[in-house]
Amino acid sequence: MRHQHAITVGPVRFRIGADWAAPIAALRALYAGYPDEERVPDCTVRLTAPRPWRRLVRPAVTISGDYWLPDTVPLPLAQGLVAAEMGMNLQVALGWRRHLLLHAAALERDGRVLLLAGASGSGKSTLAALLMLAGWRFLGDEFALVGREDGCIHPFPRPASLKNAAIAVVRAAGGVIAAEIPGTPKGRIGYVRPPAAALARMAEPAPPALLLLPRFGAAEAVAAVPPSEAFVRLTQASTNYVALGEAGFVALTRLIAAVPVCAIDYPDSAAALRLVERLWAEARR
Amino acid sequence: MSAHALVRALVAPDTVAALDEAGWTGLLTAARAERLLGTLAMRLDARAAPAGVAALLSDAIEGAEAERRAALWEAEMARRALAPIGVAPILLKGTAFAAAGSTAARGRAIGDLDILVPRAALAAVEAALIGAGWEPVKTDPYDDAYYRRWMHELPPLIHAERDRLIDVHHSILPPTARPRPDAAALCAEAVPLGQGLWALAPADRIVHAAAHLLADGDLSGGLRNLWDIDRLVREQGVAALRDQARRHGLLGPVRQALRLAHRLYETPCPDWAGRFNGFDALVRRRLLVRDGWGRQRHAATRFGFYLRSHALRMPPPLLARHLAIKALPPRWRPAR
């Protein structure tokens, strides 16, 4: 590939190649300060033009690599960074086997991990960014990596990805948006870089203490979720649960047995932070 | 060229000791792209690999084991679905190799379930599968009608809950192709594998692999297909192969497959396969198109084989009509 860059995040080493310089330059800037190591990459991402002339004329980025999905629509070159991030997510979601993957944010305090699991739009990324600003160690906002042997949550601290109104919320809380891209299929996207301390400790796993299922936009409410329901919801929130077979079942049942699970509804971020603090204190007692 | 490195590593696993980081990267990427990573991992001694690579290889072995288990379960599901109508599905390709315990299945990627059933049973088989939870994938009426009229298989079905595809074949080549395999004989001579599962007779497995590789497709995924042939030939020899190939009108593709397997994988090759020729060299070039990023190069060669694959499948007037209709937006296509 004409332009390329390698990035290590937690246990995963990515190699990203592109037909253009711009997405690679944007990646280098966003991932500045991540550790570098000479190592055979685990995942390959390719950002290429759908047709040779589309490198120059109305340039468009097709996402592929070791794994790809059929019928993905190319993004305009101006959204090359989003394409790179989507490509990295895709390779991990479809190819990674060394941990059970949960679509969840993870933050650590006092040596224990808080998990926030929910669909896109539930507010977990926003909440994760706010908790990170409040001093929690950021382990990731897209995938929580559950160790198959140790049951711990392994850091995968990619830049947090915020959408639309969340960008202003995090900015108002003192967050710095490292890159902002308007007009993507999911609207305006902003990336927040993890603080240096989170990067320095990205090889340090920690055991889980609490799992919350947040839902933004409803009146404040807390409901304990029984283990059976939590189990089913998390099988759906995992991209590799089926692929891992028995190992996935063992890792997930151990997680569910180890932590209390609560669904929380909240009307705004202040309420969410208050709820998290309260439930965290209860869980640690 | 990373596809060369892949072939070399499969044939002589010891040679990977000389690889540097870039060499390993290219090798693993090409192996993934050709869906041969599990196979490669089973061939290599993980202890000879650098630490990060050893973990990738062990992931690949575990992934292949999961695919094997899922494939055999899917075969069992099909067996149960078809038992009430008295049809025993004949497993084809990867699932058959896995069920037969063939060395071709070692680390092999297995995606869809391919089965062969007697043509007369097709309608009953389709109804039984739909009754057991499979549903059509193709929503375009032209595509559906095209499969039924011109292809050697039903339109693909997918299981609503397990999300697995099944291809139900009634022959091993389209009826419009020039070679006319004797599908009834393929069914009649199938062999039991135990537990209610069946596979083609050993020689017919090679005939089918060669037909699939050289008389049907555009050769994408060909390295894996040829590796199957290599393993099958080494395992069972070529005793009945020539007669079976001739009987199914597929002596040409079988001979070429043996020549290519010999050239790429050093497969033992009988004299009757003939000498490696100029067209073989072009096919070899097509098989080795992957670069170190997993991309396919040689666009012109690939396009040529793409056109050829269609030309082999059907006579020119039918092909022209088909390609013209496929160029139309779906709502303008005729239903038949």
TrEMBL record, chain A:
Entry keyword set:
Kinase, Transferase
InterPro entries tied to this protein = HprK-rel_A, P-loop_NTPase
Query: Gene3D superfamilies under this entry?
Result: P-loop containing nucleotide triphosphate hydrolases
Protein source organism = Sphingomonas morindae
Q: Name one GO molecular function term.
A: kinase activity
Which domain of life, per UniProt?
Bacteria
Name of this protein: HprK-related kinase A
Q: Which NCBIfam families match?
A: HprK_rel_A
Phylogenetic classification of the source organism? Bacteria, Pseudomonadati, Pseudomonadota, Alphaproteobacteria, Sphingomonadales
Entry keyword Oxidoreductase:
no
Automatic annotation (TrEMBL), chain B:
Q: What Pfam families does the record tag this protein with?
A: NTP_transf_5
Name-wise, this protein is Nucleotidyltransferase family protein
Question: Which organism encodes this protein?
Answer: Sphingomonas morindae
